[in-house]
Write a structure and sequence with these properties.
The protein is mainly alpha-helical and about 180 residues long. It has one domain (about 5-180): Up-down Bundle (AhpD-like). About 75% of the residues lie in helices and about 0% in strands. The longest helix has about 35 residues, at about 150-180. It is globular, with a radius of gyration of 17 Å. Keywords: Antioxidant, Disulfide bond, Oxidoreductase, Peroxidase, Redox-active center.
Length: about 180
């Protein structure tokens, strides 16, 4: 399975997603590691087995074992952090903002790859998961590391398209099962 297999699974009405997958797979604003890791972390955040399998098959080999583990770690740690910090941000009770999280997040300090790459992957996952507090924190770190608005936007575009592909494939599976049942 690969990007091509994902594109082939998309219906005609999702032609724009097919085109976006192709162009983002060769996004020139990111390094190969940044691009591949963003695809992997975003696929894991999509929670769709078919999309994750295809993305890992396509982009996993483009990453060192350490970078692949770091992209997976970004998806894992942000799955936890995005829920927690979204709660803190959305809760009207202000005392949660002053309480320590008391959640282990050691991988953020030592991700096994360049800090900026890990931050980029964490930002992409945070965009998929909709945590504004985490998006702001990771975007700030990326700017400090010297990444441009265009590079940051490229990562979020990848996350958006991977998520949309997952949603479309899942939607088509539901529609297909309903049609078969009728």
């Amino acid at each position: 399975m690969s990007i091509e297999s994902l594109k082939n699974r998309l219906p005609d009405y999702a032609r724009d997603l097919k085109l976006n997958l192709s162009s983002l797979a060769a996004e020139p604003g990111l390094t190969e590691q940044q691009r591949a890791g963003t695809f992997v972390a975003s696929a894991l955040a999509s929670r769709n087995a078919e999309v994750t399998h295809a993305i890992l098959a396509e982009f996993g080999p483009r990453l060192s074992p350490e970078a692949l583990a770091a992209a997976k770690a970004a998806a894992a740690i942000m799955a936890m952090n995005n829920i927690y910090y979204r709660f803190v941000h959305l809760s009207s009770a202000s005392d949660y903002k002053t309480l320590p999280a008391k959640l282990r997040m050691n991988v953020i300090a030592k991700p096994g790859v360049e800090k900026a790459d890990f931050e980029l992957w964490s930002l992409a996952v945070s965009a998929v998961n909709g945590c504004g507090m985490c998006i702001d924190a990771h975007e700030r770190e990326l700017r400090k590391a010297g990444l441009s608005a265009e590079q940051i936007q490229a990562a979020v575009r990848i996350a958006a398209v991977v998520h949309a592909v997952a949603a479309t494939i899942e939607g088509e599976a539901v529609a297909g099962s309903q049609a078969a049942a009728a």
